[in-house]
Design goal:
The chain is α+β, with helices and mostly antiparallel strands. It has a single domain, classed as Gcn5-related N-acetyltransferase (GNAT) (Aminopeptidase). Helix content is 30%, strand content 32%. It has four helices and nine strands, in the order βββααβββαβαββ. A nine-stranded mixed beta sheet has the order 1-2-3-4-5-6-7-9-8, sandwiched between helices. The protein starts with a strand and ends in a 6-residue tail after the last strand. The relative contact order is 0.15.
Length: 195
């Protein structure tokens, strides 16, 4: 696996996983991450709410606490795998990346990501997507990962292309953002894309 991974991951449901390339560090969010997560989201609300289905203008600290608790439960069940993105040197929370909408009968998952506004454009999303994709293929044994990006979200589209994702096409009215239907681009990653 590219980077390092802490030992102790006995099963996909364990939450001791740490992935790093020396620049970014991914790890499951813990209770003490709620305030830094809220700070990162608050800084980035206009950008996040424009493109992400979970974002609301009144996002609160309690929402972050609930998200972390739900993420921990979902990880244990193998339903989704959320990681905080941290600066490997300073420990600052930079965003999050996840494998969610897991479909085990067909062995694929959705890959989603966001980076706080003040750190956008620095390669953080690209590095994080590469790390979690390898984790998804090598540890969780997925055979396909999908990245679904609203058509107007150019930065996320660039990230998908930078990691080598294949643009499969456009999905009409695939997402509802702020009550409005949006078309989305579908990108895919396969294990062979990382060999």
């Amino acid at each position: 696996m590219h980077g390092t991974e802490s030992l102790g991951l006995a099963a996909p449901g364990a939450t001791t996983t740490v992935l790093t390339d020396g620049v970014v560090k991914l790890r499951p969010l813990q209770a003490h991450d709620a305030a830094p997560l809220f700070e990162a989201i608050s800084e980035s609300l206009p950008q996040l709410c424009a493109w992400l289905t979970w974002c609301r203008p009144d996002h609160a600290l309690d929402d972050c606490i609930g998200f972390i608790l739900q993420s921990q439960a979902d990880w244990q069940k193998g339903d989704q795998f959320n990681f905080g993105i941290f600066d490997a040197q300073t420990g600052q929370l930079l965003g999050s990346v996840a494998l969610n909408q897991v479909n085990r009968p067909h062995n694929y998952a959705n890959l989603g990501y966001w980076v706080r506004t003040s750190k956008a454009g620095q390669g953080i999303a690209t590095a994080s997507v590469k790390l979690i994709a390898r984790f998804g293929f090598e540890r969780l044994r997925f055979t396909r990962l999908e990245i679904i990006v609203p058509v107007g979200n150019r930065p996320s589209q660039r990230t998908a292309l930078k990691v080598g994702a294949f643009l499969e096409g456009s999905l009409r009215h695939r997402l509802v953002l702020s009550g409005q239907l949006h078309d989305a681009s579908l990108y895919s990653l396969l294990p062979a894309d990382f060999r």
